[in-house]
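Hi Y.,

Following your request, here is the sequence exactly as I used it, all 176 residues.
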Amino acid sequence: MKKIVVALIASFALAQGAFAAEPAPANAAAVRELLDAMHYRATWQASVEQMTKALPNMMRQQGEATINANATLTDAQRKQQLEKLNADLPKMAELTRNVLNDPAVIEEMEAAVTDLYARYFTTDEVKEIAAYYRTPIGAKSLQVMPHVMAESMAISQRITAPRIQKAMEQFRKNKE
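Below is the corresponding structure, written out as tokens. Let me know if you'd prefer a different format.
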């Protein structure tokens, strides 16, 4: 279960643009202005809230699939592990929320995202993007995007999880 949480956090960090190269100083200043126009910190907080709401269910589905697919478990052992999973989920979700809400995390994320944008966009392009986010539709897109992303993740999980579970079961059967 801990591996699932670590993988989700790593995926989220990569999706937000971590691990980028050093920006040109002038471009970095323009990117910081863009992040301000994007309300980056507020968007980060909203994304964290949406993700942490969805996280327990995602972790539960993944954990249940893993436990139920373990052919070495007896019904009693399976039941015991499912109970432990359900008992641990709130604690694990809170731990994840605390990590993602750490002020040092947002500082590091903002620095990494600044580097990322500076690497892919010129100063003029960054200024144009910032101008878009200052328009009514740009501002609206910033407000609704965390919700759209959360719902998109839930849809993806709902559609892919049963297929992945079925594929893993078939893989295990073919291995035997």
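The helical segments are 2-15, 25-37, 40-69, 75-100, 103-120, 123-133, 136-175.

Thanks again,
Q.
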